[in-house]
Every structure is written in C-alpha cells, then in structure tokens.
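In the design runs reported in the main text, the only information available to the sequence generator was the tokenized backbone. The following block is the verbatim input for one such run; it is reproduced so that readers can re-run the procedure and compare outputs position by position.
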C-alpha cells in the first residue's frame, strides 16, 4: 500500500471510530515537517532530536488544521513542563506519533473533560514488552489476537495521556485495567475512561475521560 493509500485508509478508519464531539485526524510525517512548528512551539521543543521535532511539527500542523475547521485559526499548541500539549482556551486535545504517522484528537472543553490518543504500527508487540504491559484484570477479548498486546500497550498510553493532565499522577501499566469488549478502562487512581479504537492500517486508540460526565457521549 502506498503512503497516500495508507493515509486515506487510516483517515477513514479514524472517522468511523470517532465519537460525537471529538475530531480526529492523521497526517504522514514528511521531511521538513519541523518547519511547521510555530516559533513559540519550536522554542519549547528546541532540545529534542530532529526526528522528534519533525513528528511534533506534523502533529501540531494536523491539530491546527482540525482547530481551523472548528473556527480557531492559527492556534499555538505549546508544551507543558510534563510534556503535555497546551491548547487554546476552551479546547482540550491529545497528540501522538510513530515513525510514519502523526495523529491528533481535539474537542471542546465544555463537552469532554479530557482525551488521550496513541498510534502504533499494526504489528505484534514483542513478547517481553507484552509481559510488562499485561496485568491481571486486563481483558483483551474482542481484539484480533495477533494485535491484542499492541492494542493494550496503545490503550494504556492513551489512558495515561488522558488522565495525567488531570491529576499529575505518574502511572505504570500495572495501574491501568483495560476491557476492550466493554470499551472501558479504569485506573487505580480512580479515573474512568471510555475507549475507541481501530487496528488497521495502524493501531489507534482514543481514551476519553468520563469524569464529570459533561457530554452526552459519555
Ligand atoms: C506520555 C507518554 C506516554 C508518551 O508516549 P511516547 O510513546 O513517548 O510518544 P507518543 O508519540 O505516543 O506521544 C507523544 C505526545 O504525547 C503528548 N504527551 C507527552 N507527555 C504527556 C503528558 N504527560 N500528558 C499528556 N500528553 C502528553 C505530547 O503531545 C507528545 O507529543 P509532542 O511531544 O509532539 O507534543 C510518555 O512519554 C510518558 O510520559 N510516559 C511516562 C509514563 C509511562 O510510560 N507509563 C507507562 C504507560 S501507562
């Protein structure tokens, strides 16, 4: 499959998985994408390696495009001291990138408390990493067995991104329980999460915090 066919296929898969009120998108990471960082964003990311700045540039250009579609032009997406993206007032969101693809999720803060997103290649997770990620209580039924470890890993990363900005707690894999069949996750710190995911052409997991339940989607 060509780069552009993979992009089209992932866009369609993410459109199907997106719950109401949350905008999702993906963008191939290309040479020179670091130039897409606005000056304020570039200064927050100056210390990073070129490949990481390129991926962050692709993710921020994508998120800016999603925000523009919601009527917010030229938004600056900064970076907090803990690494979380900083959104314009009234917006929440999340970014992720693997070696080839950047993904983003945005929503109105009035509708959704917090989101986290992750993207991974649709390849089996090595057994030694699966052993670190999987804990008693994780239920991976309902996900293609070859990709269950990879999807569990991605779900826990997405959950971490959704909940860390809420309370600053550093969580390990053992602090998050996932149930794919129910589309739910919980943390030992008391957060409830809804999960939305696709497996092909890449694994993408969206985690949506259910606290305060301000939205009809929760
Ligand atoms: C947040 C974290 C999970 C990101 O994972 P990653 O594989 O390095 O990178 P990803 O491409 O998936 O995501 C990167 C994006 O996550 C976002 N991010 C980073 N730290 C974040 C945080 N504390 N809260 C929310 N989002 C965060 C950023 O937008 C970042 O992109 P940017 O640097 O271009 O702005 C990881 O860096 C981390 O902090 N881990 C510590 C805790 C942990 O790993 N626990 C085990 C898993 S539960």
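Verbatim output:
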């Amino acid at each position: 499959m060509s780069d552009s066919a993979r992009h089209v296929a992932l866009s369609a898969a993410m459109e199907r998985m997106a719950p109401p009120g949350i905008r999702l998108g993906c963008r191939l990471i290309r040479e020179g994408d670091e130039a897409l960082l606005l000056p304020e964003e570039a200064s927050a990311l100056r210390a990073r390696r070129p490949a990481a700045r390129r991926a962050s540039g692709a993710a921020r250009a994508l998120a800016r495009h999603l925000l523009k579609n919601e009527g917010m032009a030229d938004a600056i997406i900064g970076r907090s001291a803990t690494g979380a993206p900083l959104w314009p007032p009234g917006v929440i969101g999340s970014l992720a990138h693997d070696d080839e693809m950047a993904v983003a999720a945005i929503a109105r803060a009035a509708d959704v408390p917090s989101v986290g997103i992750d993207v991974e290649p649709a390849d089996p997770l090595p057994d030694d990493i699966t052993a670190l990620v999987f804990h008693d209580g994780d239920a991976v039924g309902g996900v293609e067995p070859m990709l269950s470890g990879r999807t569990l890993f991605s779900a826990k990363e997405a959950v971490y991104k959704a909940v860390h900005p809420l309370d600053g707690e550093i969580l390990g894999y053992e602090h998050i329980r996932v149930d794919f069949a129910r589309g739910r996750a919980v943390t030992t710190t008391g957060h409830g999460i809804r999960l939305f995911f696709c497996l092909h052409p890449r694994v993408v997991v969206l985690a949506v915090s259910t606290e305060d339940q301000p939205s009809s989607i929760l």
